[in-house]
Each structure stands twice: as C-alpha cells, then as structure tokens.
Amino acid sequence: MKTTELFKNKKVLSFEIFPPKRTSSVDTIYSTLEELKDLKPDFISVTYGAGGSENCNTTIEIASAIKHKYGVESVAHLPSINLSKEEVLLNLEKFKENGIENILALRGDINPEITPKDDFKHASDLITFIKANGNFNIIGACYPEGHTENKDLDKDIENLKIKVDAGAEHLVTQLFFDNNYFYNFQDKIKKTGINVPVEAGIMPVTNKKQIEKMATLCGVQLPKKFIKMMEKYEHNALAMRDAGIAYAVDQIVDLVSQGVDGIHLYTMNNPYIAKRIYEATHNIINA
Ligand code: FAD
Predict the structure, then answer these.
(1) pTM confidence score
(2) Is 109 in the pocket of ligand 1 (CB under 6 A)?
C-alpha cells in the first residue's frame, strides 16, 4: 500500500528503525520488529546510512521482512548524495523485486571524507529520477526549524516546494522538542501552497549526552523545560527514561489536539519505549 493513501481515513502512526551496525547480526532487529508489529503501526520505515552502499542491502532486507513477514507496510529510506544514477536504478530494481512501494527519498548528509557524486545534488533531483523509473510512492524529509545548511526557514521552504512539486506526496519532519516550531512551519508551508500530509517526527529522550549531540547535528532547539528535565534526571536512568516518555507523550497529545496528520516515532530500535508511548497515546490518536 502507498503510505499516502493512509492519511485519507485516519491519523497515521509510524515508526522508524535503523539497521543494526555492520558488526552485529541483522537478526537482532527481528526481535525488535516482533514487538513493534504488535503495536499495529501504519508503517515502519528503515534508515539507510548515506556513508556507504554496504548497508543498503540490509535496509532492503529489513523493509521487505516488515512487509512480508510481519504484515506491516514498510518504507525504505534512500539517500542519494553518494550514489550514481546506475546505483539508484539498481536499488529501484531491488525495491521492485521485494515489493517495496514506498521510498523516503533523501539527499543524505554530506560526509567530508567522501566526495559526493554529481548525479543528485538535491532530494528533488532524486525524486524526479525515481518518478521516471517506477511507480513508487515518494516521501520527503522536512525541517520545522530549517535545515542545518539553510537556517533561513523561508528559503528552505521554497526548496521544499520544489521537492513536493517534483513528486513528494507526503512529508516527515526532523525531530523537534518545541511544538511551536512545527505550528509555525505548518502555517508557512500552507501559505507556500504545500498541501501534502506532514507527519511530525518525535524522538523520546533517554540519554542527555545523546540528545545534545543529536540536537547539535540536526540544528534543533532544546526548550528550557526540556533542558531542566534532562539536568534533573541525567544521573537516574529510569527517571530519565520515564520523563522522556512523558515529554514525548505530552508533545503528541498537543500535536494531535491541534490536528496533526500523523506522528512518526523515532523508536531508536527500543520497543519498550515505543510500547509505553503507544499505550499512552493510541486512544488519543484514534479518537
Ligand atoms: P534536500 O531536500 O536536498 O535539502 C538539503 C539542503 O539543500 C537544504 O538546505 C535545502 O534547503 C537545500 N535545497 C534543497 N533543494 C534545493 C534546490 N533545488 N536548490 C537549492 N537548494 C536546495 N540521512 C541518511 O543518510 N539516511 C537516512 O535514512 C535518513 N533518514 C532521514 C529521515 C528523516 C525523516 C529526516 C528528516 C532526515 C533523514 N536523514 C537521513 C537526514 C538527511 O539525509 C539530511 O537531513 C540531509 O542533510 C538532507 O536531506 P534532504 O533529503 O532533506 O535534502
């Protein structure tokens, strides 16, 4: 099923997972999926490291298992900055062979140690190429606080419009911890004429250092109450976990109350946390 269809009838709840590190076995993800599938997400997306081609097969293998073994719709991420047209075509062929219909088409982060290939400068170039080479449903990434390379939000949204006009039929946001950025972004994209569904990306915090690193990398603001929470519980893992879950639930309740199209939960491959958030919010999301 094409994920865009889901938004016609309901608020969407989706999960994101990442393939295990190369050194560990891919089997470790299957026990995670066994638990995530019981939460009946509308789809599960699988990331793909832009740094090298070796884990693309793992992304495809996992996305295929999500769909065929666990009976949940899947989305494969595809960052293109380090891929040639021929390599993208090979990926598209593998997606077709594995019945994968949905692609999160990305440019990918620029790695200073790898010279980017010239074929796909922007995600919109990849989207145009995918559209010309198959009948896929294409999803795009978006940034409520602006992309790190383009902190001028209005300019970033102009570029997002190019991506949507190229064929992105649904958008998923970067994580954020202050819903006001999301509402401001939503107002601005509507004025620009972007009318595709937008899922809000929510990441539950479990670890202060990890989230500070992530926030810097992604260029997102940490609100004062969030910083206070991390400072208070940083040395108590269980309290930090529970506070992080409560914060994510609070964000979700507010987003759903204000009419968000869907919630994309960055699960960090942690089914326990996904389950706690699901239990606290599924009646609210489905109300
Ligand atoms: P683009 O849409 O190309 O935007 C990148 C920058 O270029 C922006 O500053 C934009 O304003 C500018 N730009 C875009 N189009 C134009 C244009 N036509 N002219 C001029 N400037 C333009 N990375 C991975 O490697 N693997 C993953 O699996 C992955 N999953 C992700 C999932 C989500 C939900 C999100 C939000 C991000 C994910 N990323 C992933 C990170 C992503 O690859 C980076 O944020 C990357 O830096 C930008 O990718 P993009 O597709 O948004 O790029």
Answers:
(1) 0.97
(2) yes
